[in-house]
Specification:
This protein has five domains: about 1-310, no CATH class; about 315-425, Immunoglobulins (Immunoglobulin-like, Sandwich); about 435-545, Immunoglobulin-like (Sandwich); about 555-650, Immunoglobulins (Immunoglobulin-like, Sandwich), CATH 2.60.40.10; about 655-755, Immunoglobulins (Immunoglobulin-like). The longest helix is centred in the first third of the chain and has 10 residues, at about 1-10. A hairpin with a 5-residue loop joins strand 36 and strand 37 (about 565-570). Strands 4, 8, 9, 11, 14, 19 and 20 form a seven-stranded mixed sheet that branches. Strands 38, 39, 41, 42 and 43 form a five-stranded antiparallel sheet that branches. The chain is mostly beta strands.
């Protein structure tokens, strides 16, 4: 061991006693100087944070950085801001902060990086003292993204661990813009050329080098993740210890070193060898854009874990359950911790810490240190600008206070992450008023009114409609309106709007009007702008009814099957409380298929009492047909009034297929489909069968049917191979939800199949 260390000292960039860099990361933010009109979108500000070993004599007064566009700070071109800064509860590590800025030549993606030539010792790589220390942050300059900031890692990048005890670390990352963050582990990196071989022109003299200002990073030599058994050898294999998780520990199973992709929590279960370990993590920044999710940057932090063979037992922290609050409410959470205790590890006082991008304005105050119990209180007064799609993360850390603190008796920690979701308040006082129309240009419509939305930072109010009340009650953290509630999106208006008139307007701008005889119910909610997004709870429901009853199709029944002699009976209801001027009539149209885009008029009926029509001479053998009925009022030619049309939802015939169900031809698979406005699911379909091409049909069986069709397997033992069997299906439907117009019977065409083996 001494020989290897001496060899490393001989080839290190600087003498081994000067090694000091434990960890670090780089933060990026846009130009936020005032006045706003003077900001430069290509000007970027940076904060480099380095964690250094207090036992080193290296002062770390200067840093060398590379901007990613072929320009560098030159050697030692960035001075440290102030002196070394302490880390609360950590006596062997200091924080060093360096601020700098750069103006880029154009929009694009850039990687700002730092090279240090005094890497600290580490067990999980070869000759660490002879390798440089490299970290970077990649960011995107794009006008469409606005002034984007990189994620902020609020927790220190150095932590202590005990042999055969679970180690936890969370960077407590926060994105001020509300972008999504994803975490993953990666290898520590170095730049083989070092600073001198990376710095290039125009840097000259003592600040220059032989490079081109574009470092080429690579994984440090023989990097291994801390749980790798090659680090300790077969005589001392790393294994897990009991741990409640997540992830739950499996005693004596191979050790794990993992990071949660959503929270960033690192779990090492469990260290077995004393020493320093370095590992890097990538914090990816993702934004939702109109073109989809886009990765717009990443921060690479290199951190150090110091493992000691200690009898000290780590504390256990207890935090509140994850919570969802409405913007404007105050979040209060109680945190407690108890230090581990054994005959060789007396219980000590525990220091509590909280890390989050919302601190401040949120506060965390420790009220007791114990023993036996340390306690603290978290308080956050939420506001409308805190509404976000993703929860806010608060990392709570408990750190014990052994005495004396030595390398063999370090403070140990426990930590957990609290998720706080902030949603928008529901819009208030929604009212709906029906307005009965008198002409094609004055259709039935509903006027909606509501109070001005209380969150001025919301972007839109979204309006939804359904027929009849829904009974939908939003859950405690349920925003928007789920599809299961049965509403249809109508429109969106600016968040400053307080009224909207629903005329059932098409995408092309045509006001179709709302149907007579219907009770229309509405809800609205607010959504919030990106990148944080978020939404509000839905409003209370408001309904408005129109008198009368519209025309509805109730029958599309195949009465005869044939290629040229097919016949379908079509029936509909007579509208009630017709009202208005004009000459009334029905216009019946037909289309081919279950969802046609074009219809052909087949009948115009001027007698309102005549509500059925038989469509003859069609190919019901091979085709499925869909019908449309319109109630039309026309006006004299000189009146200059267009016809008033009320169009009922379309309905198709039932289409049946029958084929051998298997290669052995022992059964027939019967399937049927339809597209109708009534509900066929409350009553089973009836399947009829005939043996041969002539003769009567007999009722075979019933089968459940769904919203668009169903299936039945005819595996009657009496089936004979080679014989032809014919089938048709009859459905029985009703208009939901009251059963009005029930027992709507409709037959399919007849379909025959020969039971022949494949």
């Amino acid at each position: 061991m001494l020989v290897l260390l001496a060899a490393a000292m001989a080839v290190a960039p600087t003498s081994a006693w000067a090694t000091h860099i434990r960890a670090g990361d780089i933060r990026v933010r846009p130009d936020t100087t005032l006045p706003v009109s003077g900001r430069n979108p290509r000007r970027v500000f940076f904060k480099l944070t380095l964690y250094t070993d207090n036992s080193s004599s290296v002062l770390a007064d200067f840093a060398t950085v590379f901007f990613g566009d072929g320009v560098s700070s030159c050697k030692d071109g960035v001075p440290r801001q102030g002196g070394r800064r302490p880390i609360p509860g950590n006596t062997d590590t200091s924080v060093n902060v360096y601020y700098f800025e750069h103006i880029y030549p154009s929009a694009g993606q850039y990687t700002v990086s730092y090279i240090g030539e005094n890497r600290n010792d580490a067990l999980n790589m070869d000759r660490p003292l002879a390798q440089t220390f490299y970290i970077s942050t990649t960011f995107t300059l794009d006008p469409s993204l606005g002034g984007n900031s990189s994620p902020i890692l609020t927790a220190p990048a150095v932590d202590k661990a005990g042999v055969r005890q679970v180690f936890l670390h969370n960077p407590a990352a926060f994105d001020a813009d509300g972008d999504s963050l994803a975490f993953r582990l990666r290898t520590s990196q170095q730049v083989a050329a070092g600073i001198d071989g990376s710095v290039g022109p125009p840097c000259a003299g003592g600040t220059g080098g032989t490079g081109n200002n574009l470092p080429v990073p690579q994984t440090v030599t023989n990097f291994r993740y801390p749980n790798d058994p090659l680090i300790t050898g077969g005589a001392n294999p790393p294994v897990q210890v009991a741990y409640e998780g997540p992830p739950r520990g499996i005693p004596d199973a191979p050790a794990i070193f993992v990071q949660d992709v959503n929270t960033g929590q690192i779990t090492w279960n469990a260290p077995v060898a004393v020493g320093f370990y370095n590992v890097a993590m990538v914090v990816e920044e993702w934004r939702r854009t109109p073109a989809g999710r886009r990765k717009i940057g990443e921060v690479i932090r290199d951190m150090q874990i110091i493992v000691s063979a200690t009898s000290n037992l780590r504390p256990t922290i207890t935090i509140p359950e994850d919570i969802c609050v409405i913007a404007g409410e105050t979040v209060t959470g109680q945190v407690s911790a108890v230090d581990g205790v054994s005959p060789t590890s007396p219980q000590t006082a525990v220091d509590l810490f909280a890390y989050s991008g919302i601190i401040p304005p949120a506060t965390f105050t420790q009220t007791a240190k114990g023993p036996p119990t340390a306690r603290g209180t978290f308080v956050w007064q939420t506001q409308c600008n805190n509404v976000a799609r993703l929860p806010y993360l608060v990392v709570f850390k408990a750190q014990d206070t052994p005495s004396p603190v030595t390398a063999a008796n370090p403070p140990l920690i426990d930590e957990k992450t609290w998720r706080i979701t902030v949603i928008g308040p529901a819009p208030q006082n929604l009212r709906a008023t029906s307005i009965i129309g008198t002409s094609a240009t004055d259709p039935n419509r509903v006027r909606l009114d509501w109070n001005l939305y209380q969150c001025a930072n919301a972007s839109r109010i979204l309006i939804y409609r359904k027929v009849n009340p829904s009974g939908f009650v939003p859950g405690p953290c349920e925003t928007g309106i789920p599809a299961s509630a049965g509403y249809t999106f109508v429109a969106s208006v600016p968040a400053t709007a307080i009224t909207f008139t629903d005329s059932n307007t098409t995408a092309g701008g045509q006001n179709l009007g709302l149907e007579r005889g219907q009770n229309y119910c509405y809800r609205i909610y607010a959504d919030f702008p990106g990148p944080a997004f978020g939404a509000s709870i839905a409003s209370a429901e408001a309904c408005a009814a129109f008198p009368g009853a519209p025309t509805r199709l109730v029958k599309v029944d195949v009465e005869n099957t044939g290629t040229a002699t097919g016949q379908i009976g079509v029936c509909w209801t007579r509208p009630k409380a017709i009202g208005g001027d004009g000459v009334p009539s029905y216009v019946l149209s037909r289309g081919v298929g279950p969802a046609p885009t074009a219809f052909t008029t087949i009948a115009t009926i001027t007698t309102l009492a005549d509500t059925c029509f038989t469509d003859t001479g069609i190919n019901t053998q091979d085709l499925q047909y869909t019908y449309k009925i319109e109630f039309v009022r026309t006006f004299p030619t000189g009146s200059n009034q267009p016809p008033v049309r009320e169009t009922a939802p379309t309905a198709s015939s039932v289409r049946t297929t029958a084929v051998p169900a298997n290669a052995a031809a022992t059964a027939v698979a019967v399937r049927w489909t339809y597209n109708v406005p009534w509900d066929n699911t409350t009553r089973p379909a009836v399947i009829f069968r005939r043996t041969g091409n002539t003769g009567p049909y007999v009722r075979l069986n019933t089968a459940p049917t769904g919203a668009t069709g169903g299936t039945y397997l005819d595996n009657d033992p009496a089936l004979v191979k080679g014989q032809t069997y014919c089938y048709y299906v009859r459905t029985e439907g009703q208009y939901a939800p009251t059963g009005y117009l029930s027992s709507l019977l409709n037959k399919s065409q007849e379909q025959c199949a020969a039971l022949i083996a494949a």
